[in-house]
Each structure stands twice: as structure tokens, then as C-alpha cells.
Design brief:
Blueprint lengths: L13 E7 L4 H12 L7 E6 L6 H7 L3 E4 L7 H19 L6 E5 L4 E2 L4 H6 L7 E9 L6 H10 L5 E3 L4 H4 L10 E5 H6 L11 H11 L3 E11 L6 H17 L1 H7 L2 H21 L6 H9 L10 H23 L9 H4 L3 H6 L1
Helix pairs in contact: 5-11, 9-13, 11-13
Length: about 350
């Protein structure tokens, strides 16, 4: 594929697309301010809303965003994002407006961390072989120690470009990419047929894997950052990992092409244990030096969980996640009426 190279002195034309559903008026206003403060501006911001009643739609309209509407029952992680892009392209064609070179996807709870976050992400496409890029997700101040670890584990401080041959060392992590903060060449995304609509989640990983298999590259840009983390409870952890298992069961080619996910899970568990040991051997988080260092690094400084509490949390959380993932892999054996209860993407099952 002939991917365009954008000169360093010029800015590629891009859109921002974000799905919303009751993000909270104050939180959404903060999101909009962070976007407004970026030192490079999108041609268009498309918000696809699933029936928000919290005043966020008014904020979007006041900010000049294009607002599209879907019913919550019709929302689909891949399908809705692709529909929003298609609607935007149709409207641009009808009005005689140019198409974007790149499309940036964000989620409603991923707040751009620096005024140059978008510029840094878009700089990934100076490499002509790069078809998609994603940025660093940093934990929010309220994040627990396990969530802080998860963000640091998945989103390190060093950027890298990934090609298909890197699967030998990275395994299934080679096609890791998150639509909470990602950008795609429009030409490359359209050539792949856009995002799939028949998945409960994982449209980003699916597309990233297809791009790698087509001979193109992915880029992780660590200097492009958002604040994005979740403090899920046990039920939410279960539902999220059940959906992950379903996604892998529906797409066996992923693990056949890149390797099994369980190996990455063991690396995560080992890293969590090492992190717990480091936390427990560090000075108390209430000390001035620890708090000052955390603020300097823009990192949360969670309280020590205690050896007993931390170990219990580590074991129970991973047991729940592994059990849910295995159940998701075997979802065809689960009665159909139970699947929405086990899933975070309930609309997916109701649509089916």
C-alpha cells in the first residue's frame, strides 16, 4: 500500500471520533478543554452519542462538534465507530469538503494529558509503513496500585514500532492497540474493510492484527499521552475478561498467528508480584519525598495495600479474570440467556 509521508513542517489533516454515553457534564467539559488546548487542531470532531441525559450533548454542540445519535441498544464497539466515520465521510463528500488523512479515536474517559498529545501521536506517521498508532495511557490520580501497574505494564515509557516479525518476541502483544487513544491512516483502515461489527469488543486488536498481517506496521508513541484508567470491581473484571475470552474464541486465527494469550497473563502476574514487593519495601506513601516524586512524575501515589491485603487482591483479581476468560473461551456452552449477564457488552448479545 502506498502510504503518504507527511513532511515534518506540515500537519496531516485529521478527524477525532469519540463515542459517548453519559460521561458526566463536568468530566466531559474537562475532556473538551483538553482537546481545545491541543497545539494541533482536528478538521472535525465527531461525537456519536448513545442517548446521554447528563448535559454532555449540549457541551458537545457548544464546542462545535458534529453530534451523531444512536440508540444504546444498537451500540457496537466496532460497528458504531465505523458508522460514525462513514457518516462523516458521506457528509464531507456531500458538502465538497476534503477527507482526512488520519482518523483519531478516543473514548469519553481518556483525557489528553498534554497540549502536544495529538501532535506527538500524529508524528508516528512520518514512518510511511506505519498504518496505525496508539499513545500512552497513564493512570488517573484515583487509580489503585493494581491499575497503576496495569497501565505501566501495557504502556511503557519507550516508544516502538512493531512489524509482523516481532511476533516472535512479543507474541500476541504484537497486535496490542487501544482505541481509547489511537490513530489510523484512513486509506489503510478502509482497505481493511473498516472495523468489524460482529465482535463484543476488540475491534482495535482485530484491525491491528489484520494490518500487521498485510505487511504494515503499528507504532506505540509513548510521548503521546492520555489519562485513562478504571478501578473495576470484581464483577466488572469478570465481565471484561469474559468478553475477551469470547473475542478470542470467535477469532482463533489471532492466537494461531500470534500466540496464546495465557503466556502474556503469566508475565503480567509475575510483574504484579514484583511491583507489590517494591511497593511494600518503599517508604510510606504519606512521606513528603514520596508524594513530591509522584506529583513530579504525574503518577498517582496509591496507599500501600499491606502484604496480606495486596496478596489477597492480587490472587483474587487474577483468579476472577482467568476464570472469566476461560468461560468466555467456552461461551458456546453457556446458555444464551446467561451470556448478557456475564458480559460487559450486553447490547452485543441482545442484538444477536
Amino acid at each position: 500500500m502506498n502510504n503518504a509521508v507527511f513532511p515534518v513542517t506540515s500537519q496531516p489533516q485529521f478527524w477525532v471520533i469519540v463515542p459517548t454515553y453519559n460521561p458526566g457534564a463536568l468530566a466531559w467539559a474537562d475532556w473538551a478543554v483538553a482537546l481545545k488546548n491541543q497545539n494541533c487542531k482536528p478538521m472535525q470532531v465527531i461525537v456519536v452519542d448513545s442517548g446521554s441525559t447528563d448535559g454532555s450533548v449540549d457541551i458537545s454542540q457548544q464546542a462545535g462538534y458534529t453530534v451523531l445519535h444512536v440508540h444504546a441498544k444498537d451500540f457496537n464497539h466496532g460497528g458504531t465507530r465505523q458508522w460514525a466515520l462513514d457518516q462523516g465521510l458521506q457528509n464531507a463528500s456531500h458538502l465538497g469538503q476534503p477527507k482526512p488523512d488520519l482518523v483519531v479515536y478516543l473514548t469519553q474517559d481518556a483525557v489528553l494529558a498534554h497540549p502536544n498529545s495529538l501532535q506527538e501521536l500524529l508524528s508516528s506517521f512520518q514512518q510511511p509503513q506505519v498504518a496505525a498508532a496508539f499513545g500512552r495511557q497513564m493512570p488517573k490520580p484515583s487509580a489503585t496500585w493494581l491499575e497503576v501497574h496495569a497501565r505501566n505494564f501495557n504502556y511503557p515509557e519507550t516508544s516502538r514500532t512493531v512489524q509482523l516479525q516481532d511476533k516472535a518476541s512479543l507474541g500476541i502483544k504484537a497486535c496490542f492497540l487501544s482505541n481509547s487513544f489511537a490513530a489510523y491512516r484512513l486509506q489503510a483502515l478502509q482497505a481493511m474493510g473498516g472495523f468489524p461489527s460482529n465482535l463484543p469488543m476488540g475491534e482495535d486488536t482485530y484491525t491491528a492484527a489484520k494490518l500487521l498481517l498485510s505487511g504494515q506496521s503499528l507504532h506505540y508513541q509513548a510521548s503521546a499521552a492520555v489519562y485513562h484508567s478504571h478501578n473495576y470491581n470484581g464483577l466488572q473484571d469478570f465481565q471484561r475478561m469474559f468478553d475477551t475470552g469470547v473475542f478470542h474464541a470467535q477469532n482463533p486465527w489471532l492466537q494461531q498467528s500470534f500466540g496464546r494469550a495465557e503466556g502474556e497473563g503469566m508475565k503480567l502476574l509475575s510483574s504484579q508480584w514484583q511491583t507489590l514487593r517494591q511497593i511494600m519495601s518503599a517508604p510510606p506513601s504519606s512521606s513528603p519525598s514520596a508524594s513530591t516524586q509522584a506529583q513530579h512524575n504525574n503518577q498517582p501515589n496509591p496507599q500501600k495495600p499491606g502484604w496480606l491485603g495486596g496478596s489477597f487482591q492480587l490472587i483474587t483479581t487474577n483468579f476472577i479474570k482467568l476464570s472469566a476468560y476461560k468461560l468466555g473461551l467456552a461461551y458456546r456452552l453457556v446458555p444464551a440467556f446467561l451470556r448478557p449477564y456475564f458480559s460487559m457488552s450486553k447490547a452485543f448479545w441482545l442484538q444477536k
